[in-house]
Fold this sequence. Notes:
The chain has helices at about 15-30, 35-50, 55-60, 95-105, 105-125, 135, 150-165, 170-185, 210-225; strands at about 5-10, 30-35, 70, 80, 85, 125-130, 145-150, 200-205. By secondary structure, it is an alpha/beta fold. The protein starts with 5 loop residues before the first strand and ends with a helix.
Amino acid sequence: xxxxxxxxxxxxxxxxxxxxxxxxxxxxxxxxxxxxxxxxxxxxxxxxxxxxxxxxxxxxxxxxxxxxxxxxxxxxxxxxxxxxxxxxxxxxxxxxxxxxxxxxxxxxxxxxxxxxxxxxxxxxxxxxxxxxxxxxxxxxxxxxxxxxxxxxxxxxxxxxxxxxxxxxxxxxxxxxxxxxxxxxxxxxxxxxxxxxxxxxxxxxxxxxxxxxxxxxxxxxxxxxxx
Length: 226
C-alpha cells in the first residue's frame, strides 16, 4: 500500500457522493476532492462566455484561457477558483448542471483535468468522488466504492434540498433531469460512468445519512485497516 491512501467514490448524480465523501474525509482527516466541482467550473466558464456546450470545438478552444485552482479555506471546504475569482457558489446554479454534464463528455476536457486530480492524490490521502475516479483517474486506488440510489429517491432528495434553499422545482422535472443526466453519463464516449470491477457497491436508497456514512466508513476501514 502506498504511503497515502486513496478512496475513489463513483456514482450517478444526486447519490449523495459529495456530502458523504466530505463528511468521511473529515472523520479520517483526509483531503476531500470534489471532482464534479472542477467540471462544473468549466461548465460555468462556458456558460458565462455564452458558448453552446454542444459545440465541442468552441469548448475545447476556450480551455487554454482557463486557470482553475482548488483551494481550501478556513472552513475546511473545497473552493473553486476560475481565473482568480472564487466561483464556489456560482457553479451550483441549476443551469450550470447541464453545461457541466455536456462539457465533461469531451475527451479533451477530461484530459485537461486528469493530471490535476492525480497530483492531489499523489500528495495527500484523499477521498475523491466523481464519475470515473475508480475507472480512469485513480485505477489503483486502495478503496473503490460505487455509491448509488434509485433515480426516484435521488429526485426526492434533490427536491427537498431545493425547497430548503428556497428555489423549489417540481418533482417530475427533477426526476426527468436526473434520468437525462444518468443517460448522458453512462453513454458518453469518454470515461462513461460505470462501476469498476473491484469497487464495492453501496446502495443508499433505503438508508439515511448516518447509516450511509457508517456503511461507507466500514468499507474504507475494512479495506485499509484504519
